[in-house]
Amino acid sequence: MKMHLRMNPLSLGIVLLTIFGLLAVFIYSRPPRITRRAIVWKQGTLGLIVPVYWYGSITSLIKISEAGVPTIAVINLASATGPILYWNRTTHAFQDAGVKTVGDVWTGYNSVPITTVERQIRDYMRWYPDISGIFLDGSSASPSTSSYKYYEALYRYTKSLRKNALVIENPGTWVPQQYLERNGRNTSNIILISENGAPYSMREMKFNTIPAWAHKYPRRRFAVIVHGAKRSQLLVFLKKLTVFEHAGWVYVTNEDEPNPYASLPSYWKMEIQFVEHVDSTNVRTPRNGPPYTREAFHK
Question: What whole-number distance in Å separates Cα of residue 147 and Cα of residue 251?
């Protein structure tokens, strides 16, 4: 007697959804396949600071790891309640490739209780052993002693957990020197001095003045991000940012609000090529053409 296995459409659909669900978990929990390559972080080298505020695009992660230039990847997992396998493996793969990963923690312009921020910093360090540092988002620009002490305490706390940790503050504007160094001691490693859309960034570079104290520090202590920039604006921004904003870390993308960091820019390869061949010490390209000078940008 022959027996026929029959399955109604609903049961078949449940089985198929289960299979596809397990397959998706397998795919998105894998770390990117990254070929280890040594990246030498020279003092004058221009670098990329890339917010990675997406999940699942392994191809994009591989592109970041294979950039071949000094790169900082910013991830935002502060709201997580525990370690995420995908990002654990990704931070490990990034470390192998020479990419520094920093965890975004919101400080609310000095309004978030410092114990809350410290807990999130501690979670990043504990959950992701290969993370390179912390990105203090929503940093204050207020010239107040209480604000200076707040961020200096967070800097000291991060360093107490990991001596070589990278601490980046994001006020999004120029700030008093005390946010970078106070009483002869560092209070941050890098300051993100601008994070704006292309139209505002263009006006900012035209009318803003770099504080006199900033010239005492190398460009690698400052970073700038521009979003919503067209391909035709890419080289203009990258050239000008190194001069008018005194920036050693840059990122320009055509992606825009509500989340300009949901994917890499369409001109990613072009951006890498420019960054790779520009020496931020004298702001010139060693491959083609004359040095980039301030006067040239007024044309």
Answer: 27
**Cα→Cα distances 283→146, 253, 276, Å:** 37, 21, 12
Q: How far is CA 252 from the centre of its chain?
A: 11
pTM (2 d.p.): 0.81
Give me the phi and psi of 8, to 5 degrees please: -70, 160
Q: What is the DSSP letter of 284?
A: B
Looking at domain 43-298, its CATH superfamily turns out to be Glycosidases (3.20.20.80)
Return per-residue pLDDT of the chain as tens, 299 residues: 444 445 565 565 565 556 555 555 444 455 555 444 444 445 456 899 999 998 777 788 888 988 888 999 999 987 788 999 989 999 999 999 999 999 999 999 999 999 999 999 999 999 999 999 999 999 999 999 999 999 999 999 999 999 999 999 999 999 999 999 999 999 999 999 999 998 888 887 777 788 999 999 998 999 999 999 999 999 888 877 776 678 899 999 999 999 999 999 999 999 998 888 765 544 443 333 333 233 322 22
Helices 114-127 and 145-161: crossing angle in degrees, nearest 10, is: 20
Domain ranges of the chain: 43-298
